[in-house]
Amino acid sequence: MWLADRLANLVSGLGGPRDKSTGNLHVHVPRARAELDAAYRDNWLARKVVDIVPFDMLREWRAWQAPPEVAAALAASEERLGLQDRLLRALRLARLHGGAALLIGDGAPDPSLPLEPETVGQGGLRYLHVLPRGRIQAGAIERDPLSPWFGEPIAYTIAGGQAVHPSRVVRLLGAALPDDIVGDGWGDSVLQALLEAIDQATAAAAHIAAMLPEAKQDVISVPGLSQALSTEDGTRLLTERFAYAARMKGLFGMLLLEGDGHSPEGERYQQKQLDFSGLPEVARLFLQVAAGAADIPVTRLLGQSPAGLNATGESDIRNYHDHVAARQTVELTPAIARLDRLLVRDALGRDEPALRYVWRPLAQASEREKAEIGRLKAETAAMLAREGVVPAHVLARGVEGWLSAADLFPGIAAAFARPAG
């Protein structure tokens, strides 16, 4: 027996047979890849929705919490492999198509075998390739909770039928699917749920633009118009007459008409104008709906300052930066953890389980703010040195790492790396 628990009102018809919303039913209609690609290529709003979040997640990159020489080696490996660029491309493709992958290459002759981190020496990684969803096929999902690959495909197949072990693949998803849906190992495009709101926003702007040529129209009432248009000669004479009148109006700013312009016997001239006073708010409303659906503030999506008394948009941007930082920590860091372990071995030739990194903040401090933060940290370091609560050599290494990463003094990291004297 099914029980329904919902609000009903017999007087207004809410929740009853007269309620039009009772017939609403959500039906999933997958967007074809051709439609997604066309929207990305031709619709500026769809393109920004796909591109902005990955760009903001990676634009300031990350800082390794390590001694300067170790951090420099890790940064060199990232640059050699083009990690930041390839990760950005993969994240964009994942958001557009629902999934993408990074293929990790170490030169092994059989990529269907596991990639053991212990076999990767210094400079052992050869390449990172970005594979769109259409070029790599995910196998069946591992359903054994005791398997280390639980929840991931047990194998992949790339173009040409070559099998690839999942240890060689970094899988990136777009919009995640519900757990109980058995898909093809990937997710949904972020545009799947947003494209309707995006289309409505762009259509609203297009409809307003289409009204602009009709903003002001000349209307002339001509007695006996139907009779004049009933013959070819009458139609020709009338057309020539008002073509001449239009030229007169364009050249001399005046319009010659028969009669006084008021009596029924004479021609009467009027000018009709459309009222656009409420249309900007309508267009802005649709853009706000699209921005809310994409979880991107309007100030970032449109690049405009907020309107209204005392409106700065700082809280919106701060919330958005917090949102991006959370995605970096919750989604991106676990997704590339396997790659990061291999990257450490590629850079150093050994495992360093204690190595950590932090994502640099999106909100960049001004030079004055950097100097103020530097002053506070310097005072803290001096106090710790006076009190002796931290060993001097430990504190010195900490201050060295801070100054190298703080960008307060250009070239100081290289100076620290050179031997004294």
Task: Please render the helix and strand layout as text.
Elements: H1 33-42, H2 44-58, E1 62-65, H3 68-81, H4 83-97, E2 99-105, E3 127-132, E4 136-138, E5 156-158, E6 162-164, E7 169-173, H5 191-211, E8 216-221, H6 225-228, H7 232-252, E9 268-273, H8 279-294, H9 298-301, H10 314-335, H11 337-348, E10 356-359, H12 367-387, H13 392-406, H14 412-417
Helix pairs in contact: 1-2, 2-4, 2-5, 3-11, 5-8, 12-13
Question: How would you explain this protein's 3D organization?
Answer:
- 47% of the residues lie in helices and 11% in strands.
- It has 421 residues and is mostly helical.
- The strands form 4 sheets. Strands 3-2-7 form a 3-stranded antiparallel sheet, covered by helices on one side. The chain has a 3-stranded antiparallel sheet with strand order 4-5-6, with no helix packed on it. Strands 1-10 form a two-stranded antiparallel sheet.
- The model is unreliable at 1-5 (pLDDT under 50).
Q: Which structural class do you get from the secondary structure elements?
A: mainly alpha
- Give the N-to-C terminal Cα separation: 87 Å
**What is the topology, as strand order, of the major beta sheet?**
3-2-7
Order of SSEs, N→C?
A: HHEHHEEEEEEHEHHEHHHHEHHH
Percent in helix: 40-55%
Show unreliable segments: 1-5
* Count of extended strands: 10
Shape: elongated
Largest sheet features: 3 strands, antiparallel
Radius of gyration: 33 Å
Query: What is the number of helices?
Result: 14
Strand-residue fraction? Answer: 5-15%
Mean pLDDT across the residues is: 84
